[in-house]
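A.,

Following up on our hallway conversation. Structure tokens first:
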């Protein structure tokens, strides 16, 4: 397995396919916005975000988007192909995101996790994140996601 930074627009269809497979396998309400994203959407993000990918035998099997926001690096769209989940790949991508934040001298990692996915919240806690405020998606009266943050020490 190889983790690398992706700057190549030609890889965006592969990234999108993995995202759609990973997020499409989730039974959540509301459905993930990742399922509405297109290659054009990802191309716009390539200009502002750092994208890390994982490849195995030449096939793209995982990705994560990292967006600098103030003194934090926002981690989003963490996606691992369903056939490769529960093998430590997401943990490797989170470590890469943390390294990127440190390279940029940012003080924390942030993300939002779905409340309907307690295993994901537990995973992020195991990575050192703490939970914060809960939020509702538009049109929902109850919270649907939670802010999570990991403070980086020197």
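Then the amino acids I'd put at each of the 154 positions:
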């Amino acid at each position: 397995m190889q983790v690398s930074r992706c700057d190549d627009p030609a890889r965006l269809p592969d990234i999108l396919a993995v995202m759609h497979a990973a997020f499409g396998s989730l039974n959540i309400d509301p459905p993930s916005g990742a399922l509405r994203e297109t290659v054009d959407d990802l191309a716009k993000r390539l200009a502002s975000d750092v994208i890390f990918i994982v490849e195995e035998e030449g096939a793209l099997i995982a990705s994560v988007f990292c967006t600098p926001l103030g003194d934090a690096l926002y981690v989003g769209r963490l996606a691992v192909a369903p056939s490769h989940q529960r093998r430590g790949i997401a943990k490797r991508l989170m470590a890469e995101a943390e390294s990127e934040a440190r390279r940029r001298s940012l003080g924390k990692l942030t993300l939002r996790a779905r409340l309907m996915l307690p295993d994901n919240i537990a995973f992020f806690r195991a990575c050192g994140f703490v939970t914060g405020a809960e939020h509702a998606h538009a049109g929902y009266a109850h919270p649907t996601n939670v802010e999570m943050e990991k403070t980086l020490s020197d």
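The first helix runs from residue 12 to 24. Curious whether your intuition agrees with the design.

B.
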